[in-house]
Amino acid sequence: MILEYEKKQSIHAENGCEHIVNGVVRFDDLIRTDYTPTNFSAEPKSYFLRDGHVHWDRLHTETEQRIHKEWLEELGYNTNIWQVNFTTHKIKRTNHLLKFNSTIEDTSPETI
Questions:
Q1: For 15, which of 27, 70, 101, 111 could close a Cys bridge (C-beta 3.0–4.6 Å)?
Q2: DSSP β-bridge partners for residue 84
């Protein structure tokens, strides 16, 4: 399954974020990003961040990944086994599951 959703940004509070840049007080807009499912049943999510934030891209990526995980949980998926590919939004099995075989010999180097 591919998670399809609408991502929409709007100004939540014009000049609503006071912060200091190089000793100067600035006021920037507070931006609201809404994530609304379109092909599955889960709760819409929102995220707020100051316009022009120095970590804008990273924080939005981390938030969208967190939302993907929350939606998986809402859809009944075990997030230890399933994840959402960030680019394609396709639900897939995680790659970090390892199967251990007790008959495999330990070949790690010895410490002398």
A1: 27
A2: 91
User: Residues 49-57: contacts with CB within 8 Å, 24+ apart?
Assistant: 50/17, 50/19, 51/11, 51/17, 52/28
What's the burial of 31, exposed, middle or buried (CB within 10 Å: 0-12/13-18/19+)?
buried
Beta bridge partners of 10: 32
Separation CA 18–CA 20 (nearest Å): 7
pLDDT in tens, 9-64: 999 999 999 999 899 999 999 999 999 999 999 999 999 999 999 999 999 999 99
**What is the rounded distance in angstroms from the CA atom of residue 58 to the CA atom of residue 39?**
26
28, β-bridge pairs: 17
**Domain coordinates of the chain in residue numbers?**
5-93
Q: How far is 11 from 27, CA to CA, in rounded Å?
A: 13
Are 76 and 42 contacting, i.e. CB atoms less than 8 angstroms apart? no
Is the CB of residue 53 less than 8 Å from the CB of residue 63?
no
What is the Cα 19 distance to its own chain's centre?
25
